[in-house]
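Repro:
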Amino acid sequence: MSAVEERFGPYGGRYVPETLIAALDELTAAWAEAREDGAFRERLADYMDEVTNNRTALHVTRQGSRSVVVIDEAEYDSMVETLHLMRSPANARRLVEAMADADAGKLSEFDPTARSSNMSRRNAPTKPKRPPPGKRPERR
């Protein structure tokens, strides 16, 4: 049973022009052959190992189609996180300033689980003061 029959049943289900059926069948057969080819799978595994071990990108060019880049999942996650953090102009500015401080040697340690003397009451965020009951705040 072919992949098409397995997915769509015996009555087909390929939504392509009739003129492309022969090329699609040829491509399907070539992919099945490559997928089962141990040498191909080994070469592909070697390329993927190189990508993950060396943190390099693998550029896959294809004739007549757009190219593809394969990267390590950790690299991808890092890029997505960076894009998310840099999306806000204010956050991007703070991050760039922090990186400049780090480059200049202005570093400090911070342990979020420890109570720090730097977080005294005067440095802590305060709530706005409310007027005593019955008094209205002055209008400016």
